[in-house]
């Protein structure tokens, strides 16, 4: 699909999401063009995840009086799952080895949780910052961390390009009369 074409009503959700993020990217002023379109998509999905997170925190800690660390943990777990699924499907449009991607995301989510969510936001809250404000401050820092880790490690571009090139190549076999090894060595074919 060309980025300049508006998606059809029957288009896939991922195509419509790509179209929207590319439109928003084109609308950025010149000095912000370095910011990737997937960063815009990540921010949109991250806001959704954050609303899930802060909603759980407010309900559990504010209304039900669950201890802060437990409320933060449950909210973060729910938003992490939503964030991973939506980024994989809509933003980075990855397919392939979900077990590998899920394992990597689990490492990122746990490290993010320990460093930024539990550690940093708890320290800020203990210093007297209101718990929701502490969570918002830590969310700003963790957003950068999560995007970089998702883009470079969980859903790396080279795996996305390998998947696209392997899906676009026709299946070769003995029936076609073409030697697969010869095609693999041909720089034009790859």
Automatic annotation (TrEMBL):
GO cellular component assignments: plasma membrane
InterPro entries named among the record's database cross-references: GtrA_CellWall_Glycosyl, GtrA_DPMS_TM
Topology of the protein relative to the lipid bilayer: Multi-pass membrane protein
Any GO BP annotation: polysaccharide biosynthetic process
Chain residue ranges for the region called Disordered: 171-190
Domain GtrA/DPMS transmembrane: 42-155
Membrane-spanning intervals of the chain: 34-60, 66-86, 106-127, 133-154
Location of the protein in the cell: Membrane
Keywords: Membrane, Transmembrane, Transmembrane helix
Residues in the signal sequence: none
Family listed: Belongs to the GtrA family.
Protein name (record): GtrA/DPMS transmembrane domain-containing protein
């Amino acid at each position: 699909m060309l980025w300049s074409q508006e998606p059809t009503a029957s288009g896939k959700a991922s195509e419509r999401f790509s179209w929207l993020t590319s439109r928003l990217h084109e609308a950025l002023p010149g000095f912000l063009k370095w910011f990737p379109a997937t960063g815009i998509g990540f921010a949109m999905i991250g806001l959704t995840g954050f609303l899930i997170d802060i909603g759980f925190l407010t309900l559990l800690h504010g209304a039900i009086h669950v201890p802060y660390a437990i409320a933060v943990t449950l909210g973060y777990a729910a938003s992490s799952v939503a964030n991973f699924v939506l980024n994989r499907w809509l933003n980075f449009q990855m397919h392939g080895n979900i077990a590998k991607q899920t394992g990597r995301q689990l490492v990122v989510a746990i490290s993010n949780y320990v460093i930024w969510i539990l550690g940093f936001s708890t320290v800020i809250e203990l210093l007297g910052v209101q718990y929701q404000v502490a969570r918002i401050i830590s969310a700003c820092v963790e957003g950068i961390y999560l995007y970089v880790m998702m883009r470079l490690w969980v859903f790396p571009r080279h795996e996305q390009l390998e998947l696209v090139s392997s899906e676009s190549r026709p299946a070769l076999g003995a029936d076609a009369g073409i030697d697969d090894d010869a095609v693999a060595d041909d720089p034009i074919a790859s």
